[in-house]
Amino acid sequence: QVQVVESGGGLVQAGGSLRLSCAASGSIFSINSMGWYRQAPGKQRDLVASITTGGTTYYADSVKGRFTISRAKNTVYLQMNSLKSEDTGAYYCNADLFSYGSHSPKDYWGKGTLVTVSS
What span, in angstroms and rounded, lies between the C-alpha atoms of 27 and 29? Predict the structure, then answer.
């Protein structure tokens, strides 16, 4: 069993900052990558940022220079600065990992944390 739990969402004014955290726990053998996805109301879920075990990062163009992803063991963080109203949405954490006894990696998802940016 693997669990992925996010925290840190909330209401913030435009221009403000928030830090999201996500912890993966349970029967984890190794993690390939972890990332954050955002789903705005009525829209699809899109990748915002990701980080591999080797430290390679990816950022969507819309958040480059404002968001920073980092990771410590099985926890991933998303520091969000200079927030805009268009950053509003549910943020989901994803972990691509091998669990003990598995022969292929699998995606695990958290239940999401809501970020609301007021203008």
Answer: 7
Residues 36 and 94: beta-carbon distance below 8 Å: yes
pLDDT in tens, 24-65: 999 999 999 999 999 998 999 999 999 999 999 999 999 999
Return the HEC string of the chain. Answer: CEEEEEECCEEEECCCCEEEEEEEEECEEEEEEEEEEEECCCCCEEEEEEEECCCCEEECHHHCCCEEEEEECCEEEEEECCCCHHHCEEEEEEEEEEECCCCCCEEEECCCEEEEEEC
CB contact at 8 A, 90 and 17: no
pLDDT at 70: 98
